[in-house]
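One example given next:
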Amino acid sequence: MALLSANPKWPTLPEYFYDWALVDVETSGLRPGRDRVLSLAVVTLDGHGRRTGEFSTLLDPGCDPGPVHVHGLTRARLAGAPTFEQIAPQVGALLGGRVLVAHNAQFDYDFLAHEFARVRSWVPVSKRLCTLALNRLIAPATPNLKLGTLAAHYGVRQERAHDAQDDVRVLAGILHGSLDAAGRLGLDLPLLACPPRQDYKPFVPKAPCAYRNPGRFHAGNCLVQGMKVAVTGETLVSREELIARSVAAGLNMMTSVSGQTSLLVSNDPGGGTAKLRRAIAEGVPLVDEQTYLRLLDEVRPGQAKGAAQAGVAGRCRAAETPGDAAAVPRTPTPELPAQRTTAPVTRTGPARADRVLAGRRVLVLGGTHEEAGAARVRVVELGASAAVNLSAKVTDIVLLPGGESDRRVSRITSLGLPVHDADWLLAPTSAPAPEPGFVQQDPAAGSRDTAEVLVRGAVVDLPEAGAMWTVAATWGQLTACDVDVVAFRLDAQEQVAGDEDFVFYGAPGHPDGTVRLAMDGPTEQAISVDLERLPLEVSRVVVAAAIDGDATFSDVGAVEVVATCGIGEAPTARATLDAATTERTMILAEIYRRGEGWRLRAVGQGYDHALADLARSYGVDVAE
């Protein structure tokens, strides 16, 4: 459907009424805390879209400006510019009490948060809105969602790309058009809470342990590089010094205890701490601090992770026979009971024979969790993609019993979308006649979704293995419970090398930056994976979703998984996955090595267990 208005109106919906602070930054690199802001522009708008203030400046970062070919900001241009400390009060006054808006907002917000942290302050906003995330929900008729592409779509002239002042002007026009389109669809804005924080710290490189875990320590033997060591209770040497000396010796210092812990250091074996209780239960050996310090004087060399690279690559290739896309090691490990079984199928599986709905996008409303899930499976079998939210790319609605009460029905009626009952999926027409007032998107305008639609278990090759890939998960905007998306970096034995290989809300990035979590809204989270920089011993990255509290996936409904190469690019593959009614954790997808390249599998395997149980199955030390 076409939602673009020649004269978009600033929406009057009460839930869209905010004071806005539109922000754009140009930076010396991509890592907040390590890299610095080189230029900053802010424009403020009131709830009616009227401009109330603006500010822009170059900044002296005190470091190399980085990729000058991208932003054009040389040392000479930045010479004499103010520092962030000098302009922080003025920027804080503009941001205070407003919703921060940016395109790929987490990037801009994190850079600002670290800059404010350097001057012992914080970003004075409580909510942010990402126009990239908003347009993913809208799904406009564009080939991608980059700033320049959306500017052209919404009729905004872009004059100087990667210029903060011009970009924030363009952003204002995109926000205007996006709010108008979202209002017509009746979308909730993907506002993300970001209460003021003071815990952002400058980037401190933290190299993960370079050695494989050799197993348990045995009395009378030496320590071996790569052993997992935890410390509990009071120590005579400061904890920081003890950890620093241990890391320097090649040991893997952990913050909790599990069955894979090699040794626990404690001066009080009867202290009763949680780590001690777990160590005793798991049979982890204990030593006191003085014994441990003596052991540190003679640590035997361990097996470097890189030394096993050839073997890992060989095992990865052996895991699949030529032409067998699905014959890879199963995930997760067998100690967790599996969901209902479904034979894995490749992207050329039997369900592709009858694709009368190819290129269409179908939203299922109503029904029980099982009925709606079965309908979505049938939608994909017929070649369409199954939507989880109403967007501009939805072409058809399937209304199951109870769906009439869905609040979106009135919007669907006003948009003139074709509405079908469940029987339509048994013998659908290839091109249902649209209702009066419904306007098909023009394929020539780049609206057609070219993403590969994957069924559960299907596999697709990732064509640009040396690039940054993002696996984003989205669920229904009507969901009342919280969902957390996480990732695990696994070796050929499907185990993490250390706790840093578990990426989640509390640790949203691996120390080397190869796997990161981004939160773009209350119902969308994404895992980014830098395939080119992943160590060779990492054979796969597993992406999972877990529900916080007692809710299950019957409360959440389907989760849509979209794989994209690059920020704002068109999706390469998408899958819509349903777990069973009692399950609280689900493996969404996995990116794994295949020879010299990488593949993506849509998994959709759920478990009744909590996230902690799944993490332990992969070797993560999770405290009780």
Observations:
- The chain has 15 helices and 28 strands.
- Residues 308-353, 432-446 have pLDDT under 50 and may be disordered.
